[in-house]
Structure formats: C-alpha cells, structure tokens
Amino acid sequence: MVLPVATLVQKHITYGSCYILDSSTYFQLKSHVASKFGVHPNEVLVVGSGKLGFSIVHEKRYRPFGDSPDIDVTIISPDLFDKVWIEVFDYWRAGGYSFAAGSAQINYRQREGSSVAESGGSSSGR
Fold it and tell me: What are the phi and psi torsion angles at 18 (to 5°)?
C-alpha cells in the first residue's frame, strides 16, 4: 500500500512516536515546553533525527541518530508567532534592533523617519 506524501509526513514526522524518547518522557517534554511558552502540547514537536532515528539532512542522509545527539524541538503556534512578532516589532520600533554583520556590530534605530545604521561610532543613512 502506497501512502500519499501528506499522510506519510503526518504519520511519521508530525504525529507518532519519538525515536529517542519513550512515550512518557516525550509527553513530559511536550508538556513542559508547552507550559513554558503558553501553548498547547500538540503545538510542540520533536523533529529531526531524534524523532525519526536517522538524519534526513542531505549531507548526512540516513545517518543513524547519535552522531550528534541533540533533540530538535519546534513550536508550531500561530498565537505564539503573532505574540513574538509584535514584541519584536515593538522592540525594533523603540530602537533596540541590532544584528552582527561580519565582524562588526551594526545597530539600527529610527531617527526622524529614516533608518540610521551605526557601526563603530560612525553612522550612515540607509
């Protein structure tokens, strides 16, 4: 019997057991992460080789779990996404957004309706 791709993904990636954790520990992990982020446990998933038992990354395809024993956890929550998006936007709007570009730290802030970048004390309009 050949299953459609969507069914295979749901059965083995989205739902089902977790290779690295027994069902009780998997439930506890999902519940703990869910409570920390204020989401439903069904919105917390273990993904990657810890879930499947092998890697699906192209360079490491089908390598058994254990080469780098970490557990990848993801949260799929529209409500949490919206909350974090608003917080990041408000933080950016207040002038607190920065990121590293190469070896220099660049800070962006709003000034008189235009973005200004600062790097090592100098600034340039963008």
Answer: -115, 130
Give the span between the Cα atoms of 64 and 109, in whole angstroms.
Answer: 46
Q: Is residue 95 part of a domain?
A: no
* pLDDT-based confidence at residue 39 (cuts at 50, 70, 90): very high
Task: Tell me the residue length of the chain.
Answer: 126
Does residue 86 lie within any of the structural domains? no
Q: Which helix (DSSP H) or strand (DSSP E) does residue 110 occupy?
A: strand 104-111
d(CA 63, CA 100): 33
pTM recorded for the entire structure: 0.59
Residue 82 lies in a domain: no
Residue found under tokens 């299953």: 3
